[in-house]
Fold:
Amino acid sequence: MTDPDSNGDTGVGPERGSSTGTPVWVKVFGIIALVVVLLFVFLLLAGGGGHGPGRHTPSGGAGGPAPAIAHAVQLP
Amino acid sequence: MAPGLRKFALTAHVTSSVGWLGAVAAFLALAVAGLTSQDAHLVRAIYLVMQLTGWFVLVPLAFASLLTGLVQSLGTEWGLFRHYWVLFKLLINVFATIVLLMYMQTLGYLAGLAAETTLSGGDLRVLQTPSPVLHAGAALLLLLVATTLAVYKPRGMTPYGARKQHEQRTVSRS
Structure:
């Protein structure tokens, strides 16, 4: 989506110049991105460096009441 | 890049990127159904379908979007590191692809459980984890942000982009 000739709908192109300084939206996006990445790294480290099933499954099956379908299912 | 080739590359990039977004939306619908359904057979089928969708739709579209985006940016005057919106799209794409590849481990484990002939109540409880909903929801949000950036192309050049633009103007004047 970076075609310089297809911007008739937005009226912008790569040669529109730059305003001085970093735009506010970039600062806001940068802060959000930093928070997301830090959260991701924290969760990764808290989970022992993996992103496998152990991170997403209840431990020991003692995670509260079982849902309605939590009965043994035997397929034919 | 020649105009015809540029249009082809743009079409490929839009198709793969929006296709990825749509596939994640469908995946989210499956994940919600898998979390909330009371039908054990349906829940198991959903996890098997989610794994297939992950490997054969989400992962290929993620790489296609990344690859075509690189071609599109490097093959045009937008560049890869010149405009903040292009840079943010690249970061979003790379981050989402890495998390997707890592999460495929979890999906493989859950699909393996779902495929077992005999399931205990605990196994079914493990299957009904909110993690697919959370991951698909976050991915959908990220891809919507990327799509919005691509359409609006908000103003803002990186220091590298500004330097390059200044150099080009200097060359064209002399």
In short: The longest helix of chain A spans residues 24-46. The radius of gyration of chain A is 24 Å. Residues 28 and 71 of chain A are 48 Å apart (CA to CA).
